């Protein structure tokens, strides 16, 4: 009898702990944020699976491994902008609906915000915070989406601007904005269609060389180590620098065009 009492008492804490764990588990399951996160994960993973299937299809190879689709998109974009520039009868700026104003301001503000964030916040913060190889992997994911988003937003802004200023293209101020916005759109489109893919291939090639040599994990600097005397790697690195600098220069010019339009809006919009 004396032996049974301590054993019986030892089970009480375990039961209490199990009760507490069950209680917290039930509370966690009822967490709306956790449930929504799980649903978001399922949706994103489902989209990723569909994207993987699409990337293995012949259609994807034609669209992204040949230059013909890029030429077609560029030609259609130029023709669209040219058609918008043609003089035609339309509504005056006073008749512009609030919906067009919402679309115009929304696309422009998102475009400017994406440029500021990607160029001055995200890029610099990550480069000086994570290993260079990890930073390269992030660039491979963000670069295509960044320039695609910017090209779409700048095209929307340009389209709405031309629609609402159709009768005023002879004005020097308006013409300057049209030229600036068209230049911005074409730069971002060309970067996305013709420069992003070669850049990603060069990043992958550089990373393969550096992983085999055991370099590339430095933070905030470039140190090729023993690869400095590897002619094939240095040739690849020079090609990477040329493409990367071209993209960076194009991004700066596009941002300057956006800032010019921001100045134009500051002279037109009355807040107070």
From TrEMBL:
Its keywords, alphabetically, are:
Membrane, Transmembrane, Transmembrane helix
Q: Where in the cell is it found?
A: Membrane
**Primary localization class, coarse:** membrane
Q: Which GO terms describe its cellular component?
A: membrane
One Pfam family of this chain: DUF4149
Domain TMEM205-like as annotated: residue spans: 107-201
Q: Which residues cross the membrane?
A: 70-87, 99-130, 142-162, 174-195, 243-264
Name used for this protein in its record: TMEM205-like domain-containing protein
């Amino acid at each position: 009898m004396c032996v049974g009492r301590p054993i019986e008492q030892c089970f009480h804490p375990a039961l209490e702990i199990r009760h507490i764990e069950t209680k917290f588990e039930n509370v966690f399951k009822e967490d709306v944020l956790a449930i929504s996160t799980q649903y978001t994960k399922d949706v994103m993973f489902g989209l990723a699976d569909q994207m993987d299937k699409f990337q293995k299809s012949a259609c994807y190879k034609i669209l992204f491994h040949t230059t013909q689709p890029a030429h077609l998109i560029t030609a259609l974009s130029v023709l669209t902008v040219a058609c918008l520039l043609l003089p035609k009868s339309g509504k005056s700026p006073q008749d512009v609906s609030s919906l067009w104003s919402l679309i115009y301001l929304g696309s422009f503000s998102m475009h400017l915000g994406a440029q500021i964030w990607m160029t001055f916040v995200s890029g610099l913060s990550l480069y000086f915070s994570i290993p260079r190889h990890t930073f390269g992997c992030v660039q491979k994911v963000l670069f295509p989406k960044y320039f695609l988003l910017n090209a779409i937003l700048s095209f929307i802004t340009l389209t709405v601007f031309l629609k609402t200023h159709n009768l005023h293209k002879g004005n020097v101020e308006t013409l300057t904005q049209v030229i600036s916005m068209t230049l911005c759109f074409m730069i971002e489109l060309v970067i996305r269609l013709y420069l992003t893919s070669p850049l990603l291939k060069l990043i992958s090639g550089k990373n393969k060389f550096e992983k085999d040599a055991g370099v590339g994990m430095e933070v905030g600097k470039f140190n090729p180590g023993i690869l400095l005397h590897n002619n094939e790697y240095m040739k690849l690195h020079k090609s990477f620098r040329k493409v990367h600098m071209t993209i960076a220069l194009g991004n700066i010019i596009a941002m300057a065009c956006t800032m010019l339009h921001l100045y134009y809006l500051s002279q037109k919009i009355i807040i107070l």
